[in-house]
Design the sequence.
């Protein structure tokens, strides 16, 4: 038994892995999710919008309703799951102190979308930052946990120091689309680009309206980044 295996064994005893679907302790040591639970999350179906990657109900269209009428600051993005199927799990991941789910999510993202993420040729993965106040409350940034899992598996460096959140947008749930968009304006600030990064892949847990990703992409583009892509664990449905 190697030292790494012993370490892992001890960690398993101290922190048994919880299933991201049912939250029970996963019975088999090598697994990150119960076998019967794996089917609960479902992947984004075809056809998908060529820009945001949402499933489009009407076939024969290249873009979803939102992307066909609005401009985005990113190139395109990929997401693994339909948000509705993974909503509860993500809620615990963010608010129920279940950061450990990131390992399963990261494993699935790279297994299913690894080729597409590598094709973006990103110089770095940049997790969508939390406002420092929120970070203090939660103790971790869920987007950063995801980015770390993707980073180690695909060998793309992670940079969590070039984008900061300068606006605490906690109240955005209670606003309509327009209010939310307004609220995201100047939510981020790009700090530096000392190594002259050209292509950035933003990482977040969920893409819904796209306002968060867009606000971050806009700031990066204005800061001199040529191309911005995104990868999220889940995405809402398109029209
Ligand atoms: Zn389970
Ligand atoms: Zn779209």
Sequence:
């Amino acid at each position: 038994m190697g030292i790494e295996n012993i370490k892992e064994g001890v960690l398993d005893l101290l922190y048994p892995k919880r299933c991201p679907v049912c939250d029970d302790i996963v019975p088999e040591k090598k697994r990150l999710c119960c076998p019967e639970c794996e089917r609960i999350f479902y992947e984004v179906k075809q056809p998908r919008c060529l820009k945001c990657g949402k499933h489009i109900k009407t076939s024969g269209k290249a873009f979803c309703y939102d992307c066909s009428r609005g401009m985005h600051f990113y190139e395109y993005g990929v997401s693994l799951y339909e948000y509705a199927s993974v909503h509860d799990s993500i809620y615990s991941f963010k608010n129920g102190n279940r950061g450990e789910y990131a390992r399963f999510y990261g494993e699935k993202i790279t297994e299913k979308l690894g080729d597409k993420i590598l094709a973006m040729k990103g110089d770095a993965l940049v997790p969508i930052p939390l406002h420092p106040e929120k970070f203090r409350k939660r103790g971790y940034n869920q987007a950063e946990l995801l980015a770390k899992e993707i980073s180690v598996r695909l060998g793309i460096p992670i940079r969590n120091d070039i984008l900061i959140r300068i606006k605490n947008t906690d109240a955005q749930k209670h606003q309509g689309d327009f209010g939310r968009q307004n609220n995201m304006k100047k939510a981020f600030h790009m700090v530096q680009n000392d190594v002259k990064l050209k292509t950035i892949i933003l990482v977040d847990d969920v893409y819904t309206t796209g306002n968060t990703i867009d606000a971050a992409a806009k700031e990066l583009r204005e800061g001199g980044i040529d191309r911005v892509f995104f990868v999220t664990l889940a995405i809402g449905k398109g029209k």
Observations:
- The two ends are 53 Å apart (CA to CA).
- The chain has two domains: 1-40, 42-235.
- The chain has eight helices and six strands.
